[in-house]
Every structure is written in C-alpha cells, then in structure tokens.
Design goal:
It is a single chain. The protein contains 20 helices and 19 strands. The chain has 569 residues and is α/β, with parallel strands linked by helices. The strands form three sheets. It has a seven-stranded parallel sheet with strand order 2-3-1-4-5-7-6, with helices on both faces. Strands 10-9-8-11-12-13 form a six-stranded parallel sheet. The chain has a six-stranded parallel sheet with strand order 15-14-16-17-19-18. Helix 4 packs across helix 16 and helix 10 runs parallel beside helix 13.
Length: 569
C-alpha cells in the first residue's frame, strides 16, 4: 500500500487541493505524488514551492478567503520550526489548517541523524503537542492510518489546526490488509440548543437595561452575518462595537455602530465599552476578549451573555469566559445565526423592554488626526481615498505594521466592499504575506491587497518571485523604522535615547527589489498626485497581471490609532 497516496487521497476527499512549502528529505516521497502549482485550475491537487515561514501562513489566508482547508508542508529541522509560526496563529484564531512534517526514524535514534527530531535532538513531537494538545497525529502504522486521519478531520471540523507527522520508516512496513481512504462522514453535528432558556434569561436581564453587543471574528463565518447583526441592532436599538476582524460581520450603515474597540479603536467605541455598569447587559457574539480587544479589562456589565459555536475556542478557559465577568455570566454554545434569528423573532412577537441606546455619532473619534511631516504621505488621506475606492468583494490583510493599528482608527467603520483581516494575536511580522498569497490562491477572481511594513518586508522578500504572476497588490510602508516599536517606546520610556529603541532600519530600494523578483513596482508620491493613476490601473481587470508593490513613504511619528497595550509594558 502506498501510505502517502492514501493520505493525499483522504485529504482530497476533505476538499484539500493546495499544499504549500518546500521540498526536503523527509517529504520527498509524499510530494512526488503532487503536481507543481502552475496557476492552471485543471490540476486537482497542486504544490506551491514557497519558503517555509511564509508557507505556514498560506492555509490561514486560504481559509479566510474561502472557508476551505489547505495544507503547509516542510521537512525536519528548522523547516518544521519555520512552518510552525503560521500554526501558532491558526490556533490563536481558531482556523482549521493542516501542517505536515516528518520525524527521524526509530532506527536512527541514538545515531545522530541529520536534523535529529528524536528526544536526543529537537524532541519536536513534545514541542508540537505542547502547543496543540490533541491535534498532533503521528502517522506511523498503515493499519491505524485511516483511524488517525479520521481523528484529525474531527479536529478540523471543530476549527482546530492539526499536525500530521510522517513516520516514513514505519509507514513503509507493509501489511496484508488494504486500507481505503476514510469517507467523509455526513453528519449534521446538530446539538440540542436550549433557545428557550437563553431567551428567558436574556429577556429578564435586559429589562430596564441598555444592551451593548460586541461582535467577534467567529460571527464573520456566517453568510448572513451582516444582515443579522444589522437586524438585531436595529430591532433592539442596541449599541454595537466590534473587534478588528469582527468588523467584517457589521454593516457600515448600522446606525448603532460605535466602532472598533481597544487596539486602533475608535474613541466613541472605547468610551461606550468603558462605560458599562450595572445598568447594562453585554452580549458577546463569538468574540475573544484578547489583549488587543479588551486589554485585560473585565466586563463590568450587570450580566454578560457569551454565544459561540467553536468548542474550546481560543480565549475560553474551561470553555467559559466567566473569569472576565464581574456580574452574572451566561454561556451558550449555539450557531450564531440560529440564535440571532431567535432573538429577532422573539422580539417581534413580544418586544424586549431594554433601554434604547443612542444613535452613534457620524464621527467616532474625538481628536483630529495628527499631520505628517514634509516628504511623507498623509496617511489618513490615503486610507480615506482607498476606502472610497476598494473594489467589491475584495480582500485586505494588515501585516504587523502601523496599518494594523491605524487603518481602522481612520476609516472608523467597516467597508462592505472589502473584508480586512489581521492575524494580530500571534503578531508575526511578515506572516500576512503568506496569508495574502493563500487568499489569492483560494479566490483568484478576487482582488487581494496587503498592507505591510519595511520591517515585515525583510521576512518575506525572498519568496516574492514565486508569486510574481499572482496579481497581488502590496502597499509597502517605508518609514525606515519598526514603527510600532518606535511609537510605543516614545511613550513608555520617553527619557531613553532613541538609539536605544533599536528600531531603525536601513533604507532599501524596495521597488528595485520587487522588480528584481519579477513584480511591477511603483512609488507613491508624498502629495498623492499619482494615486489616481495607480488606482485607475488597478481598476483594469487583468487576471494574468503581475503582482504589484506600491512603496509608500510613511512618517513613523504620525500618531493615529491608539495602542492601549503600552500600559502593560
């Protein structure tokens, strides 16, 4: 039996058609069965030869853009470590993704094999299992192969990333029994949902109180999310705030939308959330109260209702957020669309008696934007111009640069032409490039845009050639510094010499580097007098176009979005 082919066929039955990574000793017999990526959709399964660090993020963007699962693959040693950076963010954002790595054979234990993964070397299995308990599957026996793959599929179905560990030496041991790929079980996975209990408690708690709704990124996974959040907000006249990624589930014209909270958050949203008291009820829709969302603050409402449908989602402790609630806490596991429809229908039949929230002001910020110095782009103007232009049904990704703090502060509300994502929980610089590549591979018909920084650029520039014909558009912020660090340390330790911030970066001809990798490249003039020309060019649909890098001269000292985390450092 060809174990590798069975694994590939099984993953194919799950809908996995893309692998990304680098060929190496431990995976040569696996990857020899897969066609190379050519951009030809006629290939059922393809492998993109792509640097391991960036490849680890490809499945994340692939899933965010399409809801489909992809795999990253690398050999032993440093390659496994590099690909695992993306694995960390997959865990932190509850994204189902597959990571395939090999291990040294049993016969090599004690004999110092190359890239020793045994307990004498990296002891990589214990490292992986420490990060993903219950989601690391050692494929080391033909007879147990289908069972372990079925267990891995169960984890993926529960929004968990998995690691498939190839023990090539053991998988080569032949058995008489012939195994077939495990067919995907057609289970509706429906659990009994006690909607009556929820509605009874909810109706009781919000009576005579103001309702505030926090929308998280799990809500984005529902096709009718924007319609539902709009309906419940209007029907109950409830104030609404959202996390960085949760914004994708909210309509721009929601009259009760107060904005993004915490990191890069809007002033009105922060004031609203900080004003919660015994006279309020908080409804959380699939949001993780991470540091960038609530900054370690507890929920000070009289009652907190959490609703989500991902078991043991990241952020939950013992499957609960009760440790965040100062008041009464209610936890319901249910599909968010079903629950919201039930609330809306119940409200129509028998109106809730909560206190109506005030309509959100048009301007969600209290302070004017700081200006940029001469010879730099005034970033609020650029963000606002792009916000007017974004093509319908496009995808944007913010790298770990000033954009992932400032963009949402400036534009204030989600733009329903484009879904913007940030893998901020792991905050891996440069990882967004791999995610953007994954998004474009999953949905080649969509425009994919990336905001990244000159510090991030150093982590992905070596892989640009492999995706030069993908049609990506990258806005490269050149501020000759690690901008988030420089801005933050100026507030944390203003009396320390800037040289000791260790944030300065050497200037590079970024457009020249991009062109050397086969990309098109343009420099955005500080006065934006060539922006319209660039956007006109991007408006011309050409699916075979080269990827484009646009270098943006940015003033690192133009302070825009807030960074509440600075108080914790």
């Amino acid at each position: 039996m060809n174990s590798n082919k069975l694994i590939i066929d099984t993953l194919k039955s799950w809908g996995v058609s893309l692998y990304a990574g680098v060929m190496g000793g431990g995976v040569i017999h696996f990857l020899k069965n897969i066609d190379p990526y050519t951009g030809n959709s006629s290939n059922e399964i393809e492998f993109l030869n792509f640097g391991e660090y960036n490849a680890g993020f490809v499945p994340l963007g692939y899933y965010l853009a399409s809801g489909k699962i992809a795999a990253a693959i690398a050999t032993t040693g440093a390659a496994t470590k590099l690909i695992s950076c993306g694995l960390s963010d997959a865990k932190l954002h509850d994204i189902p993704a597959i990571y395939i790595v090999p291990v040294s054979g049993i016969s090599a234990v004690g004999f110092s094999p190359l890239q020793d993964s045994t307990h004498h070397g990296s002891n990589i299995l214990l490292q992986l299992e420490a990060e993903l308990p219950g989601s690391v599957f050692v494929l080391n026996n033909q007879l147990s192969l289908t069972e372990k793959l079925a267990q891995a599929k169960n984890q993926l179905d529960h929004s968990k990333p998995v690691v498939l560990v190839l023990d090539n030496e053991q998988l080569m041991i032949a058995h008489d029994e012939v195994l077939e790929p495990v067919p995907e079980e057609k289970s509706d996975n429906k659990e009994e949902i006690d909607l009556e209990s929820f509605l009874t408690s909810f109706r009781k708690e919000i009576k005579g109180r103001r309702l505030v709704i926090l929308v998280g990124e799990e809500m984005v996974r529902y096709d009718d999310a924007i319609m539902l959040t709009s309906k419940i907000s209007r029907q109950l006249q409830a104030a609404m705030v959202w996390s960085i990624n949760g914004a994708n589930a909210v309509a721009r014209d929601n009259p009760y939308g107060y904005g993004y909270i915490s990191f890069g958050g809007n002033d009105r949203a922060l004031s609203l959330f900080n004003s919660l008291t015994e006279t309020d009820v908080l409804l959380i829709l699939g949001a993780c109260p991470d540091e960038y969302t609530v900054n370690f603050n507890k929920f000070s409402a009289a009652a907190t209702f959490f609703v989500g449908n991902i078991p043991d989602a990241y952020g939950l402790v013992d499957n609960s957020l009760e440790h965040f609630a100062e008041g009464r806490y209610y936890h319901f596991k249910a599909p968010l669309d079903i629950l919201l429809k039930s609330i809306i229908e119940s409200s129509i039949q028998n109106p809730f008696r909560n206190i109506s929230a005030k309509l959100a002001p048009q301007n969600l910020n209290d302070k004017p934007f700081h200006s940029a110095r001469k010879n730099y782009v005034n970033m609020p103007v650029l963000y606002q111009e792009l916000d007017k232009w974004w093509p319908a049904d496009s995808i944007g990704i913010d790298d770990i640069c000033l954009a992932y703090k400032d963009r949402q502060y400036v534009v204030q509300r989600p733009n329903n032409n484009i879904k913007f994502y940030s893998l901020y929980r792991g905050s891996a610089m440069g990882g967004a490039f791999g995610a953007a590549v994954g998004a474009k591979l999953a949905s080649p018909e969509k425009d994919v845009f990336l905001f990244t920084g000159d510090g991030c650029f150093r982590l992905f520039s070596g892989t640009m050639a492999e995706v030069s014909d993908l049609g990506l558009v990258v806005f490269l912020f050149n501020n000759e510094t690690l901008g988030i660090v420089e801005q933050g340390l100026g507030k944390i330790m203003p009396h320390v010499a800037k040289a000791h911030y260790h944030a300065k970066l050497k200037s590079i001809d970024y457009c020249g580097v991009a062109r050397a990798h086969g990309w098109d490249a343009k420099y955005l003039n500080p006065d934006l007098n060539n922006l319209a020309t660039l956007l006109d060019r991007l408006s011309i649909k050409n699916k075979a176009s080269k990827s484009l890098l646009i270098e943006v001269p940015v003033d690192a000292m133009q302070l825009l979005g807030s960074n509440p985390r600075l108080k914790n450092l």
